[in-house]
Design brief:
Elements lengths: L1 E5 L5 H10 L5 E7 L2 E7 L8 H18 L1
Antiparallel strand pairs: 1-3, 2-3
């Protein structure tokens, strides 16, 4: 599954941190370019299912908000 995020809403560092935190549950690749952040999630733990991507993005958004103060 691939998701493209707007760099105005998400900070690349927060998305990368979320990917590190969720690394044991899926294979996650993050790339930033031209104000967009591409997140590719594969090999999701079967116990988690597709909800993992939603949780990953929530974690990244929370990290972005915390970083902005």
């Amino acid at each position: 599954m691939k998701v493209v995020l707007d760099g105005k809403l998400y900070r690349l560092g927060a998305v990368r941190e979320a990917a590190r935190q969720f690394a044991g549950l899926a294979r996650i690749r993050v790339q930033g370019s031209k104000g967009r952040i591409s997140v590719t999630v594969d090999d999701i733990d079967p116990d988690m299912g597709p909800a993992l991507v939603d949780e990953l993005l929530n974690f990244a958004l929370a990290g972005t908000i915390a970083a902005r103060g």
